[in-house]
Amino acid sequence: xxxxxxxKLIFDLSQPGRRGTQFPESDVPVKPLAxxxxxxxxxxxxxxxxxVTEADVVRHFVNLSQLNMSVDTHFYPLGSCTMxxxxxxHERWAKLPGIGDLHPYLDESRIxxxxxxxxxxxxxxxxxxxxxxVSLQPAAGAQGELTALLTAAAYFxxxxxxxxxxxxxxxxxxxxxxxxxxxxxxxxxxxxxVDGLVDMEELKANIDENTAVFMITNPxxxxxxxxxxxxxxxxxxxxxxxxxxxxxNMNAILGITRPxxxxxxxxxxxxxxxxxxxxxxxxxxSGPIAVRDFLEPYLPGPVLTKLEGDDGEPFxxxxxxxxxxxxxxxxxxxxxxxxxxxxxxxxxxxxxxxxISEIAVLNANYLLAKLKDILPVPNGDRCMHEFxxxxxxxxxxxxxxxxxxxxxxxxxxxxxxxxxFPLVVAEALMIEPTETESRATLDAFADAIRQIVDEEPEFLxxxxxxxxxxxxxxxxxxxxxxxxxxxxxx
Amino acid sequence: xSYTFTTPEQQQEMLQEIGVNSIEELFxxxxxxxxxxxxxxxxxxxxxxxxxxxxxxxxKQNQAGSGLTCFLGGGVYDHxxxxxxxxxxxxxxxxxxxTPYQAEASQGSLQVFFEYQTLICQLTGMDVSNASLYxxxxxxxxxxxxxxxxxxxxxxxxxxxxxxxEYREVLKTYLKLQGAELVVIDTPEGTVNLDEVIATLDxxxxxxxxxxxxxxxxxxxxxxxxxxxxxKGALLxxxxxxxxxxxxxxxxxxxxxxxxxxxxxxxIPMQYGGPFLGILACRQEYMRKMPGRVIGTTxxxxxxxxxxxxLQAREQHIRRDKATSNICTNQGLLAIRATIYMTLIGPQGxxxxxxxxxxxxxxxxxxxxxxxxxxxxxDRPFFKEFVLRCPVPAEEVIARAxxxxxxxxxxxxxxADGLAADTENLLLVAVTEKRTREEIDSLAEVLxxxxxxxxxAQHA
Lengths: 490, 460
Hints:
The complex is a heterodimer of chains A (490) and B (460). The two termini of chain A are 25 Å apart. Chain A folds into three domains: 10-65, no CATH class; 90-347, Type I PLP-dependent aspartate aminotransferase-like (Major domain) (Aspartate Aminotransferase, domain 2, 3-Layer(aba) Sandwich); 355-475, Aspartate Aminotransferase, domain 1 (Alpha-Beta Complex), CATH 3.90.1150.10. Chain A is of the alpha/beta class and 490 residues long. The longest helix of chain A is centred in the C-terminal third of the chain and has 37 residues, at 335-371. Helices cover 34% and strands 11% of the residues of chain A. A seven-stranded mixed sheet of chain A has the order 1-7-6-5-4-2-3, sandwiched between helices. Chain A has a three-stranded antiparallel sheet with strand order 10-12-11. A two-stranded antiparallel ribbon of chain A has the order 8-9. Chain B is α/β, with parallel strands linked by helices and 460 residues long. Chain B folds into two domains: 69-78 and 346-459, Aspartate Aminotransferase, domain 1 (Alpha-Beta Complex), CATH 3.90.1150.10; 83-340, Type I PLP-dependent aspartate aminotransferase-like (Major domain) (Aspartate Aminotransferase, domain 2, 3-Layer(aba) Sandwich), CATH 3.40.640. Helix content of chain B is 38%, strand content 14%. Chain B has 14 helices and 14 strands. In chain B, the strands form four sheets. A seven-stranded mixed sheet of chain B has the order 2-8-7-6-5-3-4, with helices on both faces. In chain B, helix 13 packs across helix 14 (437-459). The longest helix of chain B is centred in the C-terminal third of the chain and has 38 residues, at 332-369. Chain B is globular and about 85 Å long. The mean pLDDT of chain B is 95. The interface between A and B is large, with 203 and 212 residues.
């Protein structure tokens, strides 16, 4: 039932002379543009944007929206991405007059309500991290990583130390080494043990006076808690280095253990994941960082501080930390997403925050228990909020790959898990159910996989069968990239 | 409330299925000595009604766009947002999906991003656009890093002082640990002197970074600056106001190699500074050096055309420390908003909104500079904002205007990195298509009666 007409490219719907919106006549005296602007900079004609009506636009984009799977419509167990329910109240509040329409250069005295909220958000994130100093500035997790590494670099430089190495396990997200490289560090990748944890011997062999930071996701990307984390931190600290916690998996440990309590010196949050951002079709995110006291002077500015006003009431003010690394982006941060995280934490309270992690971990373990006999989980019978199953045996015996399973799940009305990540597990299917799914959904998902593994391999190689398209050719796409519509090509 | 489903009975059954007695057992791998004891120091939970009342009262403490006639500028503007933009971008199918890794389940987002890339190319006159970066500051920074890769000149980047001071600060932060020098070329006259640029650029310079209209609202000589950069083998990176391009020549038509922009004017609310939209587009030959996600067309198993994430081999999840950028999550929903906005206003709408801004800003500049004691700081062509020199510190003028419900600024002294000499009395005034003649006239009245008369009286 796809509306073939409305979902053509918007450029193919264009008809010269159509209008989607209008602007008023000028109410100030109009002068020829050539009198106002240099003639050599004036455009002869406006850019060739499409010409469509408002109704064209609405029907086009509403129909396109229906070609997506989303959390609002489907179970979306995309591992590492925490695709939980996004409460509607957040959307309404973030757009309220006095909240959604504030210009960033309004004087502090006129936006005390907003600054109070952001200050409280700083405090809450510090409390949950067990790390007191917070910067809300980074735009996403990857920028949080980079910001923390720049903070660490400034700290070492200030101490007169020239440390160049950043260590991370092979199971790390790709953003870890990419951020370290941009921050000017040398990347050293460590192998994991067969259990999927940090190999302590290899770690010891690689720590030296040149080591700046150890970056680790905890719980890690195979869904296990790094139980040696305290010892890892001790070793790093003994060598004068710092420990960075990638907070991608915070949904497992809220109120149960805190990065600051298990030895982390710095961490980032993914507000769009853990605190239900939402994900926006690929962002915006928000990646605030929390660090120890002694790193606070290096944080990017501005940060919020609470003062006492002349009337004895609190006054919230922006300030730059004394040895700040400088800005990592313009303006305050991805405030719209921080607000949604704030609304969420205020709705949950301390008990609700802990409950998230308890149920997320319960749901993941339940699904693991229901699947392990058909899809082995190489790293044990227990997991935190997600687990990584392997289709290695299935691939070997029947030729059914992780990709085949993921693609076929779409036919059952489930989004696919993350596939082929982490790299340390062969034929990986990384499954994160989150806490906002019912037992019935988890049962149906497990039943679907049970059915899939018994299907004909050839049928699975061609899955999905019920979607508009199946198995796009990525290789052809990359060989001769077509990245825009052009009139000539039509 | 934590939005969970499971009843206590179901929890027990699930635990049984797992083979444990309690939820606590599931956390056994976290050593006891690392556990957090007690309750997190967070405020107690509030239900929807209670929290809405609290937030509404917080909102009242803010003097907002709606309660304030906004003449504020400096990279964020109070432009009109058609209702369709809000309506479509509020669809859960768009905003509760994620990065389109599974193409078959994401054709909607993928097609919108492909249309976004095309629209950005049409708007800027460039060949290729990515699918978004964070915001305007990281966009010029990613462009500079990209230029360093393209030219293989890793020592030096030049930037005009008239580029937004916060963008320049981001550039400085990122370049510092790359070991590259950031050379700032002064712009005391409100735009750069071409000879000074020619004298500063050399064979080690990877790129010249400019903004047009610049931070002061003034127009730089883009084509001449492009020639100056190219003469030394450097690239020209230009950050533009997307809404100026219905009126001004497109950067791709006047020699710019990488164009970037803050996309906020394209249907994105001000939101106290974010989330916004980083736009980056470039010439064809630099396609594979570009940072960020890119969508392309291909065909499916049966030969039908469709869309996929393309050129992923440049990205962090494949190339890791050799990636063109560390960006993963981008600004998808804002790219969707910009796409809807651009298709709604079309070429004529873009022209009209640009003309309205330009005409109204010039009317405002003439009116305000006609008041005793006020003058334009620069004698340069400008588009929709300008720097006003006040007879008293800008701070006082801003405060006085705010009392009358008029938002002005930023004051130039807000920026630590001295923009021009004697910034104390300088402030930016931006005039969008939303501002009426009546509002401009009442701003003039406030400045005249509130400030200028008082100053004259003091001096009398």
